[in-house]
Design a protein that fits this description.
heterodimer; A: mainly alpha; B: 110 residues; mainly alpha; Helix Hairpins
Amino acid sequence: MLAYVIPLCMAIVGVAMVLNLLRLIQGPDMVDRVLALDTLYINALALIVLLGIWLASDLFFEAALLIAVMGFVGTVAVAKYLLHGDIID
Amino acid sequence: MSFWIEALICLFLIVGSLFALVGAIGLYRLPDFFTRLHGPTKATTLGVGGMIIASMIFFGSQGEGLSLHELLITLFLFITAPVSAHMLAKAAMQQRVKYIEKTQGKPWDQ
């Protein structure tokens, strides 16, 4: 049963990522694009967790955690740049 | 792996991916930025949370005992998603992003 459900979930998350990508392309403002990138990395993290269950491998957990940390730092850096025009103040 | 554990994993996976899809639809369809902020920050963290719970049950049933270190990702996302949404909302308020008429509250006019 898991062999049918995991590709289905990958397809659903793929559709979600396509919608995020459309918002990333057509977003009218800068903050819209940053929000779309933020959602895109969370969905990529979900896809990596799915791949880890599919291959029954424990290695993908570290990659998912790294993507979570790096994505948060990137989002905060861009938001601070939009807020102050400067990242470190 | 027994049938019921596999069914539970499948249930959590499908619920999680549907939550991710709902968040993405909200991000794509809603009319202005301040309403668009709701979709990803609520639904997508719940979606990833469901998948992490499924992953915990899966690796816990592999026979190596309970694996709790997947909870780190959920904890980290549940802490960081409101923080990044708050900073994006502050940046949008400072840049005076356009909003529709029904969005209430104009904090930059006070």
